[in-house]
């Protein structure tokens, strides 16, 4: 199990958002109010997954309003 990297002091994500970005679980539900950064968290999570070697064909991202 990979450890969640330390959040840099200049990072704008909250601690909870940072945990969601680096969570190693297979499934993740992000639920919050409008304008709270849900889409930004999901995009960053996908970027981190791709950087770690996860293939595009292994990801399913679903959003709705």
How would you describe the overall organization of this protein?
This protein has a domain of 37 residues. Helix content is 34%, strand content 0%. Helix 1 packs parallel to helix 2. It is globular and about 30 Å long. The mean pLDDT is 91.
Descriptive tags:
mainly alpha, 2 helices, 65 residues, 34% helix
Strand-pairing-aware structural class: mainly alpha
> What distance separates the N and C termini?
33 Å
Determine the strand fraction and express it as a percent band: under 5%
Largest sheet: none
- Tell me the number of helical segments per DSSP (H or I, 4 or more residues long): 2
- Total DSSP E strands: 0
Radius of gyration (CA) equals 12 Å
Average pLDDT, all residues: 91
Backbone shape: globular
Low-confidence stretches: none
Question: SSE order in H/E notation?
Answer: HH
How helix-rich are the residues, as a percent range?
25-40%
Give the topology.
Blueprint: H1 15-22, H2 38-51
Helix pairs in contact: 1-2
Provide a short characterization of the protein structure.
The protein has 65 residues and is mainly alpha-helical. The protein is built from two helices and no strands.
